[in-house]
Amino acid sequence: MNRFNNVLLGISLLLLQACAATPPLEARHQASGLNTQFNGDQLAFADYVASSRAMIAKTHAGLNPTEAEKVIDGNAPFELKPAANCPEGHGKPYRRGVLLTHGLTDSPYFMRYLASFFHENCFRVMVILLPGHGTQPGDLLDVTWEEWAKAEAYGTDKLAAEVDEVYLAGFSTGGALSVYQSLRDNRVRGLFLFSPAFKVSPMAALANLHKIYSWASPSAKWLDVMPDKDIYKYESFPKNAAAQIYALTQEVGSQLREHEVNIPVFAAASQDDTSVYSSATLEFMARTRHPSSRMVLYTTDAKKFPPGILAEKLELVNSVLPEQKILSSAHTAIVLPPEDMHYGVAGNYSNCIHYYPDEMGKYDACNNKPKEDLQGELTKENLKMGTLRRLMYNPNFAALKISMKKFIDSLP
User: Fold this and answer.
1) What 3-state DSSP class applies to 315?
2) How many beta carbons lie within 10 A of that of residue 410, not counting itself?
3) Are 277 and 204 in contact (CB under 8 A)?
4) Is the pLDDT of residue 18 over 50?
5) Which end of the chain is less enclosed by CB atoms within 10 A, N or C?
6) How far is CA 92 from CA 1, 47, 206, 207, 354, in A?
């Protein structure tokens, strides 16, 4: 009966939301017709990159050349080849390779610093673009997680053709896709997971109930209609995106109940994550059996993790930095360094969309980056502290790379 009541409550909330006032939809909230399915199966990876760049260029044709170049470079898939002095493979060009996969509403831009790290450590690097991403938010209206999984499988196949050892690395949704692929592909030798999406709000299961009534009210297809000022990440968020990530987490969870994780895993997450449940990452890591597996957890309270939890696997990092006005780490604050010119300390973008459109005064103030602004995750406690920007970079990124290097050095 409780489950039935919860469903009724969820439906009621969705119907109320459909009736609520929302900002008007614009052209970007429609599908482009170019980016719902994965169509790169028959392409060499370099051709896939070129085809994706052409698609992104077509959907951003109205930009001036300088801005268009930034948008295309940041949203397109890319690849890096090891230096000539790196170890060769046995019958293949390279010893190790890694496929990097971005998160939901994100882009390959979020993978560029990880890509550089792996490249410096002699990995062949491939970075994919998930269908529905990199073009316009409306392309997420009809995409399915199975299309994302096709892109993941494609990238894995292309990488496996060139390297002896295949590793998968993913942020958020990309982390879930990496695990999904590893559970069905014995070529995968290890995983790197950053804020992995193993569990999201159960309300996401009801997200696509809007189809009952959204034919009459197109705005009902959206959880958030935003300005979309960020050129490397959608700010608007369709309900279908929530439904698809929920379905993916359910599939991954089902497979994990049937399979053990025996390969080495490196994970990094924030205890205060409000996008996904970091507790699910802790549970996942507790089940990993390989002795090399490690997890970095950014926490505001190390006392919550008594000696013995995950034994030697867990590295706790204090995420409260008063001198930098940082209240905590965040889901979004793992894979980018402070020096990033878009999201970093002196970056030109501020994540303030949690104030839009209901608190426009705070939204405008937050975007102006006053010195007294706080940064952190969007927890209730943090939001009470003052004007808050969601933290988009990792103050401890240099230390994270050291931890990752130790993990790599421990690999068999």
Assistant:
1) strand
2) 14
3) no
4) no
5) N
6) 58, 20, 47, 45, 48
